[in-house]
Amino acid sequence: MGFFTRDFTTEGRGAELIANTYRYFHLYRAFVFPFNPILADINDFELELRLYLKSLDTGELSDPLKESHRWTDDKYLGQIGLILATMASGVQFSDVSYVSRAHIPRDLIRRAFQSLRLANYLCHPTVQAIQALLVIGNVLQNNGQSDASSALLGCTIRLGQALRLDMDDSSSSSSSASSSDSKTVKTTNRKTWPALGKRCRDTNTSEYERARMRAKESFTNALQAFLEFHTLSIVPLRTWSTIHTTLSSILLTSIWEETKNDSIILDLQKRTIHVFESAGSSPGAADNTTVDDSQWLSEPHIQLLKTVKNVVRQNAARDLASGDDQNETVNPPTGSEDESGIFPTTEIVE
């Protein structure tokens, strides 16, 4: 399925384009924006989107007799790039096939970059262009291309600096509200900074014990939340930040003395790994062999998943051996009678 091609002037193609644009934008608004609120004002953006689609529907963008110079301005070219970027993000959370979820966002991102290039975004950056680049970076992350996303983020930061977005608002002709917020941040910083040094003290205190228990509870909650969220939504397995947090939690709990032998956490670790492996070996994900660089996990996450799988397996075996030495019966994790049920022999899709 292509988007924004030359045949959109036909009535059927135009209706399909408008319907898909609304569909993918609403998926972005429902599944992406609440967790990554990149757009400065999503309601204002939706108004701009409706204006663009109205112009498209009336032929303003294709009919020479109705042509308007509005959409050739750098600002609005950047806005078109942002529209395409949000559509690409929405596609990733749609119900289309895995291959389509890889191809369509890639095509939309390419067109978004073309729009930004026409706006000369490197020499004349705009807020719209920066927002588009941030959304594109999020799409790349979710598509397993975290290295490309990181490189793009560096460029985006420099463009933000070119717009002086990193400067103190109080030094410019900003609103009184912005100036007040800036002063509040400075005042808070002056008050808290001296106290930071005092926090470097002996850890063998009751505060350390509370911090240790809080860390253990946080790791447990992170794994439980992932498992519960996974049963309700597709978001956890299609969002880079959620995947990263979950795998990191498994790794840390598998090597920390406080948690690596905890039976409850071990059960959560195994169930979580099983979710990842089941997704990696599902028929839809298996199609990724036909799509270049479109695996649903990035290479670092694939290696991390393999590592935590081996570490958790070793911890489970060590715990079982310790129980045998003490002539104690070790109950299997909840919902599992066989180790192979948690750790399938199938390899992670490379």
TrEMBL record:
One of the entry's Gene Ontology molecular-function terms is: carboxy-lyase activity
Listed Low complexity bias regions: 170-182
Q: Which InterPro entries would you find in this protein's record? A: UbiX-like
Annotated region (Disordered), positions in chain: 167-188, 318-350
Matching entries from CDD domains are given as: fungal_TF_MHR
Q: Which PANTHER family match?
A: FLAVIN PRENYLTRANSFERASE, FLAVIN PRENYLTRANSFERASE PAD1, MITOCHONDRIAL
Protein name (record): Transcription factor domain-containing protein
